[in-house]
Design goal:
There is one protein chain. The chain is built from twelve helices and ten strands. With about 325 residues, the protein is α/β, with parallel strands linked by helices. The chain folds into two domains: about 15-45, no CATH class; about 50-285, Alpha-Beta Complex (2-enoyl-CoA Hydratase, Chain A, domain 1), CATH 3.90.226.10. Strands 3, 4, 5, 6, 7, 8, 9 and 10 form an eight-stranded mixed β-sheet that branches. A two-stranded antiparallel sheet has the order 1-2.
């Protein structure tokens, strides 16, 4: 009876310590949480959920979710060890999310942004139809509002339970980012651990600036798959953020505590100075740009006295 009481009391005590997944050190949990889920011994960045990511990135109370009504379905009636519908339900209960991505708008130090965050706790953030659709729509929203787009990527590959519909999201998301680029918008891609498969091979690698968290795994196929399939020996650490920065795939490796400030600086440096009013349509902006181009061309071809008269009239 004494032992039973002792065991019950011990089991009810919250866990105060945890083991680092990288260096293996036993570390005080409170210290890790104070450092935004980063190991104080080796700087290993633990996985965090979408809600935590939004909270440390955006101004408090500024996030407004969009496209929450888009829900996953089971188009193939897929069944492996369990039905796909059951996997979805279990992931939704475990994470409190409807899908592996949350998208919306918010502010970073007062700067309005369109933002999407993938959550690796939801079926390893595999990219299904809903993930692809939300990425495409948030990119379209960034174009419509003339605001920068920030996407925190994660992913374990295409979601096999949706078959070719999942693979099609690579083309859809890439096309949406291309339209954003054509419109002169800014896209900052932030790769977290892990960013692999179709996510890495599509929109995550198309940023105007690509950031990665320290030691994040980034690549298409895993090292073991490459070794066994291609019979190649790969360099040690070749899929880490640091290795990829050395070889030009990643622009900068930024610690979690510095990402918010880094995003703010990038927006100040790279976002268009003149931004269209919120809610303006792409057609109206295109027409406005066309009118400006005509005016500039007419002014350039005007005789010098007319141009001088125009300047004097304005002043």
């Amino acid at each position: 009876m004494v032992w039973e009481r002792f065991r019950k009391r011990k089991d009810s005590t919250p866990h105060l310590w945890l083991k680092c997944e990288d260096c293996g050190e036993i570390i005080y949990k409170k210290n890790v949480e104070e450092k935004l889920k980063v190991c104080p011994e080796c700087n290993y960045h633990f996985r965090i959920g979408a809600s935590e990511r939004l909270a440390i990135t955006l101004d408090e109370g500024s996030f407004e979710e969009h496209f929450a009504e888009i829900l996953p379905v089971d188009p193939l009636g897929f069944f492996d060890k369990k039905p796909y519908t059951q996997r979805l339900s279990e992931a939704q209960r475990a994470t409190g999310l409807k899908e592996a991505i949350v998208a919306g708008t918010g502010r970073i130090d007062g700067r309005e942004v369109a933002i999407a965050v993938m959550d690796a706790n939801f079926i390893m953030a595999s990219m299904g139809s809903v993930v692809g659709e939300k990425v495409a729509r948030i990119a379209e929203l960034a174009v419509e509002r003339g605001i920068p787009l920030v996407i925190f990527s994660a992913g374990g590959g295409a979601r096999m339970q949706e078959g070719v519909l999942s693979l099609a999201q690579m083309a859809k998301t890439s096309a949406a980012i291309a339209r954003l680029h054509d419109a002169g918008g800014l896209f900052v891609s932030v790769m977290t651990n892990p960013t692999t498969g179709g996510v890495a091979a599509s929109f995550a690698s198309l940023g105007d600036v690509t950031i990665a968290e320290p030691k994040a795994m980034v690549g298409f196929a895993g090292a073991r798959v490459i070794k066994h399939t291609l019979k190649l020996e790969v360099p040690e650490g070749f899929q880490t953020a640091e290795f990829l920065m050395e070889h030009g795939l990643v622009d900068m490796v930024v610690s979690r505590a510095e990402i918010r400030a880094t995003l703010a600086r990038l927006i100040d440096y790279l976002a268009p100075v003149e931004r269209p009013a919120a809610g303006s349509s792409r057609e109206s902006r295109t027409a406005a740009h066309a009118e400006d181009a005509v005016d500039e061309e007419a002014e350039a071809e005007a005789p010098l006295p007319e141009k001088r008269h125009k300047v004097e009239h304005v002043h």
